[in-house]
Every structure is written in C-alpha cells, then in structure tokens.
Amino acid sequence: MADTITDIDNSPQVLSSAALRRQMLKEFWFYFSENRGAVIGLFVFVALVFVAVFASVIAPHSPFQQYRDAILVPPAWIEGGNTTFLLGTDPVGRDILSRLIYGAQYSLFIGVFVTTLSLVGGILVGLIAGYYRGWIDTVIMRLMDIILAFPSLLLALVLVAILGPSLTNGMIAIAITLQPHFVRLTRAAVMAEKSRDYVTASRLAGAGPFRLMFRTILPNCMAPLIVQATLSFSNAILDAAALGFLGMGAQPPAPEWGTMLAEAREFILRAWWVVTFPGLAILITVLAINLMGDGLRDALDPKLKRS
Amino acid sequence: MFGFLLRRLAVLIPTFIGVSIIAFSFIRLLPGDPVALLSGERVMSPERHAQISAQLGLDRPMVIQYFDYLGGVLTGDFGTSIVSKTPILGQFWALFPATVELSFCAIILAIAIGVPAGVIAAIKRGSFFDQTLMGIALVGYSMPIFWWGLLLIIFFSGTLQWFPVSGRISLMYFFPPVTGFMLIDSLLSGQKGAFMSAISHLALPSIVLATIPLAVIARQTRSAMLEVLSEDYVRTARAKGLSPFRVVGIHALRNAMIPVITTIGLQIGVMLAGAILTETIFSWPGIGKWMVDSVFRRDYPVIQGGLLLIAGIIMIVNLIVDLLYGLINPRIRH
User: Fold this and answer.
1) pTM of the model
2) Topology of domain A30-306, per CATH?
C-alpha cells in the first residue's frame, strides 16, 4: 500500500484524498477480480450473508418446530421425500433446510466475533511489543509462544472445560488461540515500518507515541493483517463447529452446524442426509472464505505475487 | 551448530515454565473448590476436607504448591486420575503409541502424495492438472475433518463395507502389547490376518488425519518449487543439457524441500489437534480421545497432565524441526 501512495505522489496532478481512495479501491478490485476463485468465493459469501440476514423470511419452517409425523424424511428428490421438506428432516422431525439457514447466522456471527476479538487484541498487543521493544516485547512474545505451544482445538477444549460448555465460552477460547498470529504479524510489520523516514518525519513533527502507533504506522501494516483475518475467520468457523461436534460448543437445540452433526452422528448409517448437509454447509462456507483470502492476498500484497 | 542449539534451548525453557504455570493454575482457576475437583469427592465433612487438602498439599502457599507440582512433573509424577485412580503418566504411555502410529501413517501418506503432487503441479504450472490439483488442495484445506470422517464411514464402512468403523484391530485377535504399535505387534504375534486387520482399521483414520496436512504440503511444495525453478542455477543445469528429471529431481527439489520441511514439522502440532477429532470419530484409543473423554468425565488431573504432556511433545518436535532446519540451511543459524 505504501508503494501505491508513493507512485501517486510522484505523478504531476495532485489528487484529493477521496479520489485517492477511489483509485486505490479500483486497483484493489483489478487485482482481486483477476482471481476467478476469489470472485466466486465473494459471491458465495455475499449469498451466505443474505441468507443469514433474511433467515426468518427465507426459511420454510421454524428451526425448532418438531413435526412428529415426519421423522427422518429423506430429501425431496429421493423416494419417500416430499417438497415440504426439501432437504429432509432430522431424527426429531425438524426441517433440515430451515436449520441450515438459521445455522448460517451462527457461523457468520462466530466468524465476525472471533476475528474482531483476536484482531483488535492482537493489533494492540503487537503494536506495543513492536513499538516499545525491550523487556515488554520479550514478555509478550514469550507469552505468545506459550499459547502457540498448545494445539488450538486442545486449548479451546480445555478452556471450555474450565468455563463451562457454551458458544460464548467457545468463541472466547478460539479467539485466544488465534490471537498470537496477529500479534506476531503486527509486531513484525511495526518493526519494519518504524525505522522508515515517514515515521521519523512524523515523530520530528511532534507526534506522540499513540498517534505514531495508530495513525502513522498501523495503516501501513494492514495488508498482511487483513489476509490473516480471513484465515482466522474460516479457522474460527471450523474450530467452533468442531467444538459443537464434540458437545463443547453451542448446545442443542441450537441449529449450529457442528452441533447438528453431533446430534446426527448415531444415524449416519440409516439417514445419510442428516449428516451430509450440515457438513457440506460448513465446507462451502469455509471454502468460500479461503478462496476470498487467496484473492485478497494477491490484491493486497504484490510481494507475494500470484504463484 | 552447538551455539544454535543452546540458543533454541534458552527460548524453550521459559516457554516450558510458562506452559507448566498454565497447566498448574488451570485447576485453581476453575469455579469451585480445587480440593473437591482434585479428589473427585463431592460431599465431604470438614475434617475429610482438611485431610485431603493437607494430603494434596493444597493448604500450603501457592508458590510452594507450584514448585511441588513442577518438581513432580520433572521427576515424572503428573498426579493421579480421579476416575481410574492410576498414575497419569502410565495412562499416557499406554495410549501414546496409538496416536503416534496413527499420526505417523497420516504424515507418511500426506508426504507421499503431497510432495509429488506439488512438484508436478509446479512443473505443469497453469495446466489443467495444476488447476484441478490446487482446487482439490483448497477443498482439503477447508475440510471439516470430523464431517469428512463421517462421510468416509458412510461410504466405505456402510455402503461398501470395506473397512471397519472403529477400533485398532478386530476383536478376533488377541495378543499382549509388546511395542504398543499395532502394526508391529500384529506381525510379532504371528497370527494369520492380524496384520491385515490392523491395516484396515488404520486406513480410514489415517486418510482423515492426513487430509489437511496433505493439502498444506501440496500447496507449499508447489510454491517452493515454482520459486526454485526460476533460479539461475536451475537454468544453468538445464543449459548443461541435464535431463529434466535430474534438474527437477536433484537440483531443484533439494532446495525446494527446505521450506517444505518446516511446513511438515508445523503440521505435527496440527495433527495432534486433528487427532482429538479423528480419534473421537473412529474410537481410536489414543491421547486425543483420552483428553476428550477426560473433559467429559471432569477428570481434571488428567486434563491438566495431558495438556502439559501434549504441549511438551509439540515443543520438542518443534525444536527438532528447528535443528533440522538449521542443519540443512546453514544461513538460519545466525
């Protein structure tokens, strides 16, 4: 991003900041749209957001309504299925399609919440470590090493065992395990940027440490952080679903996709649809976000090129 | 090289102490009475409470408790399980070979397919093969493996009935564990069909556990290979008239493997987390399932000990990977 700004400064005409922003956005879209997978990922993601927001309008049934005379009805296109329940029903007669639609709300909320928490926390801690260095940096980085020594799912599982199984506790636990990556990235970027001339100039102009950290340095460190944020988004959804699957995340009857899988497990050999669709929903969501992440990396980080 | 080892160890020791503090304070952070949690007794008289408290050393200052705990850990005493009343370290050693066997097969599978696939994709960059392969790799990377395992069970155990659903070996076979590794023990037992039974039990869990590492290794190999193939020395080797196989297989691959080895090392931590899910799905009696079961049984001493043991193993593996990396890439040592 810094390169873009220097390029434009060298050009003869002076651009207003709004025009500058528009030009940067245009350039971003140019690189992003070159990656076909990323555009597909973006479309799927937008569709998911739409489904989640308008779940109550789209869903044909309530996600909790149990149709006792329609237990384990197969999907519509299979013999025995009917169009009332397009993707069939689960062991207590709930409509799977409606539960999946409401489940999108859970997954997207988990992704947004966990990513925001770990991103904001990671940036704050990373800025402090990279800006001040010295003993505070050493202490922070050792702490992050300690968190990284545990596999994320194990740490999340143990934290949930302490705090009690619930979606909120699961999300906090996952955010803690994802945070060190943001700390490391921010710290490395801050250390690289801190010795640049524009930072020195800003300091000489009288900018205090907070202005230097947040207004001067941080905007130029955002590219790797945004790419990492998309990765964390998909990781958060996967880990939360895994916790739900183990019975340690969202609790039944919540239509969370991982929890739905856990409830369906004993029926796998009798009714494949109760297992197949929730997992497929997780896979499609995570895949769409990862595709977008690849496109973002191409568009934001020219150094990584398209390889 | 020796200095490099010392520097790595110097970083490792404070990390280990930190990890042990986390494992130690974990039970004290729990809402509820640590005496009740550690002894597993719900209702007890004040006298009994004081007796257990003294017995477990919980009536002493926190710092002394910690050093007691650390001393125990360093001499191999990780405490006793509430449920089975047996030492935790003993349980761990009984179950660990199962996890090692599964992880080992999975990582071999991931390397054996991932590295060649990545190399071919890099050579045929932009081709149909390359695009398909990278598409599959991204799907594999995004896979919720607990669902993937269930799908494989539906198809291969349910519909085709090729592989068993759970366990390490068919109940028909019984022999005392010698090494703890079922593949070796079944061969040593000399029983007909035991080895094949062990392999068929291992197949599906290995595939599930290998999925994400396989995708990561294929992607990493491809990009490392692409970078190396554009280097001058590769062009020189080509210009000398060496066969393409020699250029790619010997000149390029050796250097491309350097980042790949790091990736493989990092996957071992990923695999231990994956083992939690894989072992739960396939009822594989390893440390992943042990941890999940202990969380459900509220066997806090086991969770505490297992947490520390697993983190310790990951730290040792990372150290070995770092040292290997320093060995093959001397630049990193400084």
Assistant:
1) 0.87
2) MetI-like fold (1.10.3720)
